[in-house]
Amino acid sequence: MNQPIVLPARESLTSTFQRWWDTQGEWVEEPNQRRAGESGVQRVRLRDASQPLLYSKRQIGHLYRSLAHPFGRPTVLRELQALQAFARLGVRVPELVYCGTRQQAGQWQALLVTAELDGFVSLENWYRDGHTERHGTLVHQRMLAAVGVALNRIHRARWQHGCCYPKHIFLRVHGAGDAAWVEVALLDLEKSRRRLRRSAAARHDLRQLHRHRQDMPVEDWLRLLAAHTTASEADAHVI
Ligand SMILES: Nc1ncnc2c1ncn2[C@@H]1O[C@H](COP(=O)(O)OP(=O)(O)O)[C@@H](O)[C@H]1O
Ligand SMILES: [Mg+2]
């Protein structure tokens, strides 16, 4: 969080959580019933037009259970942990604006607000909207390699994304021609967790991405996979 976005105080008794809870926009993902609770995402434009567009994940009773939290804990807290861990590993993630939880009448409410990944397009839309043709073969190949390397970076740290679909891999092209490079950001980390072995994390995510690769031609998939493998081997020499 670089410069925290502070909502204007309406009255001193209104909690920060309540003010963010009241800050709403149009649904990007309508609330759906999962994990005996509900979760949805809204796109929020603050009145201050100089602020970035925000994405607000709103959840009610949406919990995960683990050995450390047998009675359940809001999934946004797991996502928050993963956002911070991925950023520390040098993998771009949406910038955190606000995260908070509270219990209302015995039910959890939770919020995770992030700034829009400006100038990025999802891997799903990359294929759908013809970015390969727009940027050319070289940039396209660099994009595939960058995705393989970014995934390898979290896997090397034994992190598993857990929801590794093309719609959760975001891409931004910087520069042009020979100097062009592609930045990769990962989002929707609410299922992300650490595994005991890097191979288990990698196997899970790569199988998942392969299953959901949709329009990706097989040669593209192999290129992405090769970059993932090469990054692993490069790492093995360092250790
Ligand atoms: N910070 C962000 N920048 C750009 N797009 C975002 C951002 N956060 C969420 N989105 C968009 O909203 C969609 C839903 O968010 P996501 O975190 O996947 O929530 P859910 O758990 O409901 O799937 C994403 O697939 C993405 O298209
Ligand atoms: Mg999602």
Summed up:
With 239 residues, the chain is an alpha+beta fold. It is built from 7 helices and 12 strands.
Order of helices and strands: HEEEEEHEEEHHHEEEEHH
Termini Cα gap: 32 Å
Bound molecules: adenosine-5'-diphosphate, magnesium ion
Strand order of the largest sheet: 1-2-3-7-6
Provide structural commentary:
There is one protein chain. The protein has 239 residues and is of the alpha+beta class. The protein has 2 domains: 16-115, Phosphorylase Kinase, domain 1; 121-238, Transferase(Phosphotransferase), domain 1 (Orthogonal Bundle), CATH 1.10.510. It contains 7 helices and 12 strands. It has helices at 16-22, 75-88, 123-128, 131-135, 137-156, 198-211, 218-238; strands at 26-34, 37-44, 54-60, 63-64, 73-74, 96-104, 107-115, 121-122, 159-160, 169-174, 181-186, 193-194. The chain has a 5-stranded antiparallel sheet with strand order 1-2-3-7-6, with helices on both faces. Helix 5 crosses helix 7 (218-238). Bound molecules: adenosine-5'-diphosphate and magnesium ion. The site of magnesium ion (MG) has 2 residues, from loops.
Layout of helices and strands:
Layout: H1 16-22, E1 26-34, E2 37-44, E3 54-60, E4 63-64, E5 73-74, H2 75-88, E6 96-104, E7 107-115, E8 121-122, H3 123-128, H4 131-135, H5 137-156, E9 159-160, E10 169-174, E11 181-186, E12 193-194, H6 198-211, H7 218-238
Antiparallel strand pairs: 1-2, 2-3, 3-7, 4-5, 6-7, 8-10, 9-12, 10-11
Helix pairs in contact: 5-6, 5-7
State the main characteristics.
Phosphorylase Kinase, domain 1, 239 residues, Transferase(Phosphotransferase), domain 1, alpha+beta, single chain, binds adenosine-5'-diphosphate, 3-stranded antiparallel β-sheet, binds magnesium ion
